[in-house]
Amino acid sequence: MSFRRALALAACGLAGGSVLFSAVAVGKPPARSGGGDAEPRPGTAAAAVPAAPAAPQGLLLLPPAAAAASCPPAAGWIERAGGTGGYWDSNWDRREPLALINLKKKNEETGEEELASRLDHCKAKATRHIFLIRHSQYNLDGRADKDRTLTPLGREQAELTGRRLASLGLKFDQIIHSSMTRATETTEIISKYLPGVKKISTDLLREGAPIEPDPPVSHWKPEAVQYYEDGARIEAAFRNFIHRADAKQEEDSYEIFVCHANVIRYIVCRALQFPPEGWLRMSLNNGSITHLVIRPNGRVALRTLGDTGFMPPDKITRT
Length: 319
Hints:
It contains eight helices and eight strands, in the order αββαααβαβαβαβαββ. It has helices spanning 2-15, 64-69, 97-100, 112-122, 152-167, 181-191, 224-241, 261-271, and strands at residues 22-25, 59-62, 128-134, 174-178, 198-202, 253-259, 289-294, 300-307. The longest helix is centred in the C-terminal third of the chain and has 18 residues, at 224-241.
């Protein structure tokens, strides 16, 4: 039974929205009596349904309703793309030019010419490079956040991350960091290698439980209220910070975000339009670098995920 549900869930996740069919493993189907299809009950009309594709031996094709019933419900703040698997929502950040203008105000005399001009005015021109840095190793024994400071190894990791970012030779625009102690201390060390780059602290990037993971894990089970509170905040962080460049931005930008593993993994899933419930299937080392690229047309690419190749093996941790 668990295998059947796992396959159905996999099909739901791949589709990213509505599901046409889900294939689940079953035993050998029973032979039909009479060698034909079952007759409709008296007094009922047989619905004209297109023939479904033949299932391979040992597989059962579930209709959409049954497949949807087997998928776990999404959090209320997650917007699901319509259509079948492989669909890309080009207006995922609500900054698609056509969505930014009021078509009702189009001048009837100039028509298409004015529309094209207004669309061009709303188009992004620059690429945003987002560097998501997980904080360094910290003291797990601290009761309050202020006591969860970086360990000596954690400070070494932050130094290595700072050197790595500086070696890229990029003109970083800003460092936005979580207001939690371990992220703030990591930022202070990194910023030594990036003089002149402004630092901004925000509560939106604080660690939390973004959304109930699928599949669930036994060692980490927050209360439902924590998903409700943290999830909305972390989704707000995604919407606020992860989007294509503003139309007024002329040059490519390079921005650093120092925060936490749960936040980064959720952001990666959302940015790539993967099922966000899969965030816990990834693992990130302390001080790691994740690089997202957002093009002017809204396309998103993941350049690196949790890179710590610049650290010696004995300096790598995941606490």
